[in-house]
Amino acid sequence: MEWSETIRLWSQTPVKIVDIRHIVLKPWEEPRAYRLPANAFLFANQGEAWLKLDGIEVSSMGYHVLHGGKDAVLYMKGSNRSIDYYLILYKPIMELTGDNAAKRIEQLARFKRPYTFRASDPILLLSLLERMFVHWTKGEELERLQAAGLFYQFVYEQFRQLQLDGAELAEPDLAAQIALYIHEHYRESIPMETIANVFHYSTHYLARVFKRKYGSSPMEYLVQIRMNKAKALIMETDIPIRTIAESVGYTDIYYFNRLFKKQAGATPAQFKMHRLGLKGSIRTNIMPESFIASQAEESYIVNSDNHYQQNAWRVNEMNVRFKPSFAVSLLFSLSLLLAACGGTGAEVQPTAQTNNEQKNESANALPAEKRMFKDALGREVEIPANPGKVVVVTYGGYLLPLGLKPVGADQGTLDQYPEDMAEVESIGEGLGNAEAVSALEPDLIILPDYHKAEAFASYEKIAPTIAVAWGGDPDVINTLRTMVTL
């Protein structure tokens, strides 16, 4: 069947969406007849039903596309399984008066042309329909504009598959269909049960079929897709780490951090610093291969977890990563901060006026060994003027370029810097163990700001606890400045 004229007409005629519906017909539900108020596409997603549209009959087991014109009657009869389908109602915008009225009426008839076919790539069509339906039902003009864009993608894709319908088609590759579905929905929560419902097979069978082709389970594949997307965003943008995590499907920043470190051999913040190093310095031979290796077309999973740990980049390699000008600027900034914090710097001789002012203000001042610090959560925290025993969670590596070491750090940090932190005590995995921290008798505790309030409350019983911004800076200067200030 020749479709070139119809496709040309679609490309030249504006179309308005009337409605987008997602309908479920229950098992053995009474037959229904529905006269279409506008031209329509119907996509039978799953289940069983007998369908008749404008004289075309289909016993659908799912993945059928039907098209009919305005005033055509759709008959539908369910079976012992429910039928899930999408219905898109649309109308072409065409002026039917004037000299070319007869020609336009003939063209309008082409939009009513009835046809049906079984989709060769149903998941791609389903993905477009799902997104289209979500945007349409929100009702806002901007969302409906997005739905209109997706509608034209759907029209293109169904014409492409329609033209293939008469050819000898191989049975759709189930594993490839699952991979495509994951690529389309990786930002969402898609457990195996969801994938099983989409493809109408058991989770065990789908996992076996998928692993035979890709060497990993669908869930492992999903994690790797998300991590690859996250790496690209970290390498190419200055988007905060927390926002990147949410954009690839993770609302728990700590869980995202753990997964990322397992896959990349470095935390997102360290990976981000590595990117800055490459921008301003010559690439060295100690660069991790996992950061630059091209991905095979269908090879996403590396089975050995240890592979990611062999060449992990570390914070204290900054001196070989950055330009000399960057290092000079950094050292200059830090020296100023050290001077401001009471470190090295010129000593100012007190005058009589300053002595009197100090005496007058002494009643309201903090003790000399204390000072106030505003942390990343906006809290004013009283901390030691010169802390000597600091416990750091996650950010221990930031102290190394400054020539400093904590008394305690989480095990993940110690594993990252086994030589530099050989004498540092472990407080345990992740957030650490409160008893282990208490045993070190710290005078200051530093945590990333993404932890819950309960974690800060627990550690504040041991020592003053400061929140440091997590991944929000486009470079490492501000984080290092915070460490120096503390």
TrEMBL record:
The keyword Acyltransferase does not apply. It holds the Pfam family HTH_18. SUPFAM superfamilies: Helical backbone' metal receptor, Homeodomain-like. Residues 176-274 form the HTH araC/xylS-type domain. Residues 389-486 form the Fe/B12 periplasmic-binding domain. The keyword DNA-binding applies. Residues 350-363 have a biased composition (Polar residues). Keywords: DNA-binding, Transcription, Transcription regulation. Residues 347-367 are annotated as: Disordered. SMART domains: HTH_ARAC. One of its GO terms (molecular function) is sequence-specific DNA binding. This is Iron complex transport system substrate-binding protein. The lineage of its organism: Bacteria, Bacillati, Bacillota, Bacilli, Bacillales.
